[in-house]
User: Which sequence fits this backbone?
């Protein structure tokens, strides 16, 4: 049964277009096209929406809004870029404030061409989005209820490609947050990562055969330095980070002290450490918008 | 009725009421579309929507917010069972109020500005319709000498003839109760309200589906109460409920949303003029 | 018999002890011991089959009359000189007039009147005594902790705790007196003692403001006292009796004037409009005073008297007027409560409203109304005391009692916030007691006077609004707050916990109380009785069972959900509260409740309600005369 095909609810956001596409989106609701006959509702609320319909290009003003709205949509969710500005930035591409199409910020699933996009193509885009929704739901279902069978254990060099992919997903978010695309984890090559396995301990969290989180650590004197704590965004706020950190700590039985660092705004990374009693030590500037905060704690009884 | 019969009937109601309510919601959307010269969604669209919502991820702002919705749902089912098994009508109204309060508390708990304003407005609306609903029950008592739904339904008198003011007043507050324009201040089924989705803004996935199903129960209960005015002639009761439903749809599509002051004044003045006037006439001509 | 006198005398003795033994530790011991004895004593009266409690008193009535008169004159003199000293001539005048009436009664008719039953107790008095005994003792225990903290917070007020506890116990004793006295002059004496206690406790802080409010309360209550004294004089001259039970069994026509006068006295004591201002003013007193005197017990003396008169008022025009005053007060006060953000004022207005509902029951005077009225007294006393004490505790901790500042209390003070919610739910939610009573009132009105239904239905929809928005404020969380409930004494928690437990327990046990106490009393008067049918009771029990499951959710958190920020139009800045406004600046979101002050403003509505009620009272006296 195609549950999503019958009832795709849409959230429409106008990033920064000339309003041409917006008017066409609204036109699809009118009696002539009447998308409601397909069960489409323009909800105006991310919490209720399945499809994020974005018109216009991304600029510095709406970047945060786009990310917030996407974050507040329940899974499965699909992003559709409507019109050429949303697809690529179009003639505004070179503007000082324009960053490009929607895919510079969000994972776009459907591109609807046109300037302005015609209602027919918009409806077509929605119907394509619906199919992707079904696929995503099937994936969600396959993961559903498997959190209990999550295993945490030592990763080997064989896992390197998967960990690298995960790392890129997570650090893309970070890069946007700090507007700093020079982050080392983003630029790391597979060979480089494979070499890390010779000197460092890697811990992975696995659900349904897929790696959804990892962290690494290395001994230096009495202190174990932990870093690169990543968890796939689907699985945030479920205590996976904390369990990863506990596991990597356990693999350094001789360490008297643990230290790590995160970006000053990276709440998701900071939280597991803070929950385990890590305290901030110092803060240093690494780029224009990014500070590095160092955390550390002594092992109990050490 | 023996307790066993009552229990069986209650089970039938619990199963049948949402089906009826969902179909009504479907008719609602279809008819509204036709009034706007659109084709409109399929008749079963509300069921499709709910089926999808059950497959969505549940996201929350506060981890405890959904519990209030569960209680809202349970009490709404309870209300429907109580009403259609012929219980005390005042108790039914109190149970309905209790259920609605849980939804309002859920919206408060979600701690978002939109759901917060939705909750406040919903409270104003509850304050607006509550007197009229109670007066309707009082009027029915004055004619039939009973608050028990079964007894009221079995009364040989056509209540609407004795209580025309109360019936009209009740239809007015039904517009409020069914969240229809011009009184859909707190949470509208139409998209793009000034307060987003009001009380339901922060609810998603299966929680939202439960709210939807609870509304179906609610629709059947309030329409059932309207039909009670014609209970002496069952065929007329069905026709009347249908007409009331159609009328409310028409009003929904014709009127623009009003401010809370107007909503409150309309409901209260109707209750005070038509409701109380009708009750006094019945009481003194008895 | 002796136990009745014992209950009256014991608190008075304790009060004296408290005045003599002033160290804090000794005081705590005395208060706690006394509280236990009084609570157990008042409850023990309920245990045996009552009825034998009404026996002639042994003291020769001859002397007792003069003793009562003497004490009364002493009180009048005290009030007279207070009035002179603070240049409140109206107070002096009222005290003088009342003393004059009392002397006139005694001199003119004293020798001719035989008082057969001086003090007596029936089931109604015993219920009242039980309420005073239990709620009063719990509040006394609570006060021990509260007053200590109060004086630590408020260095500017002189620490007069011995006086405070002295007055509290004198008050408790005289409340028992009010409920047990059958002789009206004796009842009036206790009545005036409670008025004086109220006056002194309102003025406890000794500021100009509190003194002004105290005198307002005194003036209005003396007005009622004057009517009371007038009723006694009238009764003595026309009927040759000054006993309450004889008055009630008199024929309606002859008793109408004293009944109207006494009902007037009751309405002033219960702060009905247009006399409601004194109760609002009384909120300057420390919170235990508000809880004890101005919501759960003293003001109940007024409605107690009105309910006593119910058989006389039933079906008469003055009775209808009393009902109208009550109904109007209920409606206006409930609407006004919407516009209040000070928690104590909300409680005060809601108290006035509920007293109005009880007065309404008394004015209707049918058996159903009487049953509902007594239930209302019971539920309201317990729940309102709980709410007042909770607000007091909140104020003690945060130095404010603004409902807006209770935002997120469920995190900051979880225990207290749950107790407030129990109290609020008890005040209006199905299936809790107050709602059961309102339901009964509605049924009573439909049969007798459906015009009055309008007050009840509109008034109760207003109560729904202000209670739920308060609940919502407690639940809504905009920022994470650390739970901190330190600094609240264990004795305070004991009192709060006990009141919460009683509030919930009453819902389950009220059918028992009704069957054992209220129904026999009502049947004794009318020969018939109203009750909630068994089927409905089962349904309500199911509802209670479901609601009772709710608190579990305070401790269970949903695990398999994703937590996201609240919707702020996409402008969130890393939180549910902060958002990016125009020009890129970060602003904080704020949520405040609706108060609808333009529509439901206090001044406007109390003026309108006051005028209407004053008119009803004039009609009442006009017809009675």
Assistant:
């Amino acid at each position: 049964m195609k549950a999503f095909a019958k009832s795709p609810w849409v959230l429409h956001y106008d990033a920064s277009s000339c309003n041409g596409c917006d008017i066409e989106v609204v036109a699809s609701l009118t009696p002539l096209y009447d998308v409601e006959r397909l069960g489409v509702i323009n909800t105006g609320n991310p919490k209720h929406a399945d499809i994020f319909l974005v018109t216009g290009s991304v600029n510095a003003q709406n970047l945060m809004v786009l990310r917030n709205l996407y974050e507040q949509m329940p899974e499965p969710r699909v992003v559709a870029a409507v019109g050429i500005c949303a697809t690529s930035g179009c003639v505004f591409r070179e503007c000082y404030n324009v960053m490009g199409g929607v895919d510079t910020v969000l994972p776009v699933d459907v591109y609807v061409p046109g300037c302005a996009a015609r209602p027919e193509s918009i409806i077509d885009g929605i119907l394509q989005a619906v199919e992707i929704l079904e696929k995503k739901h099937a994936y969600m279902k396959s993961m559903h209820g498997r959190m209990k069978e999550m295993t945490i254990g030592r990763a080997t060099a064989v896992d390197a490609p998967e960990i690298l992919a995960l790392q890129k997903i997570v650090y893309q978010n970070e890069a946007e947050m700090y507007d700093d695309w020079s982050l080392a984890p983003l630029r790391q090559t597979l060979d480089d990562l494979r070499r890390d396995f010779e000197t460092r301990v890697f811990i992975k969290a696995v659900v349904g055969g897929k790696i959804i989180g990892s962290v690494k650590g290395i001994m230096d004197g009495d202190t174990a330095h932990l870093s690169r704590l990543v968890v796939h965004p689907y699985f945030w706020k479920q205590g996976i980070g904390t369990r990863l950190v506990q596991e990597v700590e356990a693999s350094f039985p001789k360490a008297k002290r643990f230290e790590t660092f995160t970006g000053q705004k990276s709440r998701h990374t900071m939280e597991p450490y803070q929950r385990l009693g890590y305290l901030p030590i110092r803060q240093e500037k690494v780029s224009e918008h990014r500070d590095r905060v160092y955390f550390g704690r002594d092992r109990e009884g050490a | 009725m023996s307790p066993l019969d009552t229990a069986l009937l209650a089970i039938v109601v619990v199963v049948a009421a949402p089906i009826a309510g969902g179909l009504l919601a479907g008719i609602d959307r279809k008819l509204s579309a036709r009034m706007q010269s659109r084709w409109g969604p399929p008749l079963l669209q509300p069921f499709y929507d709910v089926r999808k919502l059950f497959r969505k991820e549940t996201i929350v702002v506060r981890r405890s917010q959904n519990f209030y919705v569960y209680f809202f749902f349970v009490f709404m089912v309870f209300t429907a069972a109580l009403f259609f098994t012929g219980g005390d009508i005042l108790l039914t109204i109190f149970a309905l109020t209790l259920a609605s309060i849980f939804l309002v508390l859920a919206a408060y708990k979600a701690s978002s500005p939109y759901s917060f304003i939705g909750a406040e407005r919903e409270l104003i609306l509850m304050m607006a319709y509550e007197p009229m609903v109670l007066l309707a029950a009082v009027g029915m008592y004055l004619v039939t000498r009973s608050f028990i739904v079964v007894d009221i339904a079995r009364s040989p008198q056509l209540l609407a003839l004795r209580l025309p003011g109360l019936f009209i007043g009740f239809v007015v507050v039904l517009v409020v109760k069914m969240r229809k324009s011009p009184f859909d201040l707190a949470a509208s089924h139409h998209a793009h309200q000034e307060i987003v989705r009001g009380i339901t803004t922060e609810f998603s996935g299966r929680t939202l589906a439960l709210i939807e199903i609870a509304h179906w129960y609610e629709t059947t209960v309030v329409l059932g109460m309207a039909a009670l005015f014609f209970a002496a002639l069952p065929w007329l009761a069905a026709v009347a409920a249908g007409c009331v439903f159609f009328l409310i749809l028409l009003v929904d599509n014709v009127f623009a949303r009003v401010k809370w002051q107007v909503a409150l004044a309309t409901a209260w003045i109707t209750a005070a003029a038509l409701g109380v006037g009708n009750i006094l006439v019945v009481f003194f001509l008895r | 018999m002796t136990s009745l006198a014992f209950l009256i005398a014991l608190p008075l003795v304790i009060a004296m002890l408290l005045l003599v033994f002033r160290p804090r530790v000794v005081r705590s011991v005395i208060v706690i011991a006394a509280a236990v004895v009084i609570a157990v004593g008042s409850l023990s009266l309920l245990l045996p089959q009552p009825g034998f409690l009404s026996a002639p008193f042994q003291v020769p009535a001859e002397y007792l009359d003069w003793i009562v008169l003497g004490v009364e004159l002493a009180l009048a003199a005290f009030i007279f000189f207070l009035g002179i000293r603070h240049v409140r001539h109206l107070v002096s005048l009222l005290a003088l007039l009342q003393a004059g009436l009392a002397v006139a009664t005694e001199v003119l008719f004293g020798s001719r009147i035989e008082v057969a039953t001086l003090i007596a107790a029936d089931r109604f008095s015993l219920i009242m005594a039980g309420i005073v005994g239990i709620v009063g003792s719990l509040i006394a225990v609570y006060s021990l902790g509260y007053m200590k903290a109060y004086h630590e917070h408020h260095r500017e007020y002189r620490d007069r705790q011995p006086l405070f506890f002295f007055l509290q116990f004198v008050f408790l004793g005289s409340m028992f007196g009010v409920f047990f006295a059958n002789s009206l002059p004796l009842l009036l004496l206790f009545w005036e003692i409670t008025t004086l206690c109220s006056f002194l406790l309102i003025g406890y802080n000794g500021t100009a403001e509190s003194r002004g409010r105290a005198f307002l309360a005194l003036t209005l209550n003396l007005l009622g006292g004057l009517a009371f004294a007038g009723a006694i004089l009238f009764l003595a001259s026309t009927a040759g009796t000054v006993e309450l039970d004889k008055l009630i069994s008199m024929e309606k026509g002859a008793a109408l004037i004293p009944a109207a006068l006494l009902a007037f006295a009751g309405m002033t004591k219960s702060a009905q409009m247009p006399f409601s201002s004194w109760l609002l003013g009384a909120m300057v007193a420390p919170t235990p005073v508000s809880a004890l005197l101005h919501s759960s017990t003293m003001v109940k003396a007024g409605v107690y008297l009105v309910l006593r008169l119910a058989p006389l008022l039933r079906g008469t025009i003055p009775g209808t007027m009393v009902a109208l005053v009550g109904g109007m007060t209920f409606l206006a006060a409930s609407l006004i409560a919407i516009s209040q953000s000070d928690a104590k004022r909300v409680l005060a207005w809601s108290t006035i409203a509920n007293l109005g509902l009880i007065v309404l029951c008394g004015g209707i005077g049918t058996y159903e109304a009487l049953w509902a009225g007594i239930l209302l007294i019971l539920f309201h006393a317990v729940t309102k005391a709980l709410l007042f004490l909770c607000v007091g505790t909140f104020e003690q901790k945060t130095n404010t009692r603004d409902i807006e500042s209770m935002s997120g209390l469920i995190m900051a003070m979880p225990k207290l916030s749950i107790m407030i919610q129990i109290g609020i739910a008890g005040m209006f939610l199905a299936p809790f007691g107050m709602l059961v009573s309102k339901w009964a009132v509605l049924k009573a009105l439909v049969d007798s006077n459906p015009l009055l239904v309008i007050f009840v239905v509109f008034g109760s929809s207003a109560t729904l609004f202000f209670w739920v928005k308060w609940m919502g404020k407690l639940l809504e969380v905009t920022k994470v707050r650390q739970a901190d409930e330190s600094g609240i004494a264990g004795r305070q928690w004991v009192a709060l916990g006990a009141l919460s437990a009683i509030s919930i327990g009453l819902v389950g046990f009220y059918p028992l109380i009704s069957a054992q106490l209220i129904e026999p009393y009502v049947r004794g008067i009318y020969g018939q009785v109203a009750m909630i049918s068994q089927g409905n009771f089962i349904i309500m029990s199911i509802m209670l069972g479901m609601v009772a499951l709710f608190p579990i959710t305070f401790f269970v958190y949903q695990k398999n959900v994703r937590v996201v920020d609240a919707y702020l139009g996409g402008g969130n800045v890393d939180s549910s509260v902060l958002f990016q406004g125009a020009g890129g600046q970060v602003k904080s979101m704020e949520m405040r409740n609706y108060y609808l002050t333009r529509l439901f403003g206090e001044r406007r509505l109390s003026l309108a309600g006051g005028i209407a009620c004053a008119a009803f009272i004039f009609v009442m006296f006009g017809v009675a005369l």
